[in-house]
Amino acid sequence: MKRTGRLLELLSLLNSKKTFTVKELADTFSVSHRTMLRDLHLLSESGVPLQATPGPGGGYSLLRKHTLPPVTFTLEEAVALIISYESFLHYTDKPFEKETLSVISKLFAILPPEATQKIELLRQKVFMRNPRRVTQSPFLRPLLDAALEQQALHIEYDSLQRKSKRIIQPYYLYAFNGYWYCRCFCRLRQKNVSLRVDRILSYTVLTEPSLPAVPQIDDELEQPELRLFMRLTAKGCKLADWHHELGNLIHYHEDGTGTIDTVIFTTDVEWVSRFILGLGQEATVEQPEQVIDYLQTELDALQERYASGYGPSNISSVIVNGNGDRS
């Protein structure tokens, strides 16, 4: 269990009984005595009202507060907040990890036992699933601070092609499919881009007095446009539906098949093509030629790589048709 998840479980456990010894807690979570002491110290640093009672029969417990907080919550609201916060547990890094633990600890401190039981039941019935990623995003908070303060950052970024140094102006952060992304203006590419936060290797806050004007939407539309037209089988529609951009563009037919007919920029060819490769034989690309050429190049490379070991293969898993109408 990751540390953040264990700390939340520890909070829940401390809320369910008066006192626990360090040994009892360590045995419950299958960690060492030293690790449990460190977890208790982290909770205390996060503002959790822990009370340590020495001597026989003593241990650690939550200090119950008898005064209501300035903002009161109904039982349902408090439970909903805790469950909502826990939906981020699958992310290795979170921009407000310490504050989250503090808020949850304060809620646990005032919840009656029946509320704790309801939380445990909801954990079994409601599960916010996101892929677990082992990559770390240590610069989430600095990026968020830069977005709030409208600061520019000089970063080193490890893209699919190469490492590069660039200046960005962060706009906002968002989480998708287990990864954190930063939407920003990139001076290197002179456009708005979304960067994987875990691929940012270093950053420096720039102290320059003036920042570039936020690009207007029309600035992005000045790039060369390409018409993307592809046909999807019924299975292909299901496979493509999860994608946060292309999935919303599927036009479904009565037989369950579908088509995507949209406009992309030339800078989108690579990521669009890589996504289509993952659809295998469930996708047929008719336009544009740039995507078709990219797919054919990738498939030829795969064919050459595996031909010697596997003989004639079926690597050409994407049906590519270059005879579609061009408009």
TrEMBL record:
The organism's place on the tree of life at top rank: Bacteria
Keywords assigned by UniProt, alphabetized: Transcription, Transcription regulation
Position of the signal peptide: none
Alphabetized GO MF terms: DNA-binding transcription factor activity
Family matches, as InterPro entries: CBASS_pafABC_assoc_protein, DeoR_HTH, HTH_11, PafC-like, WCX_dom, WH-like_DNA-bd_sf, WH_DNA-bd_sf, WYL_dom
Record-annotated HTH deoR-type domain positions: 3-58
Presence of the UniProt keyword Mitochondrion in the record: no
A Pfam entry, by short name: WCX
Name of the protein: YafY family transcriptional regulator
Originating species: Brevibacillus fluminis
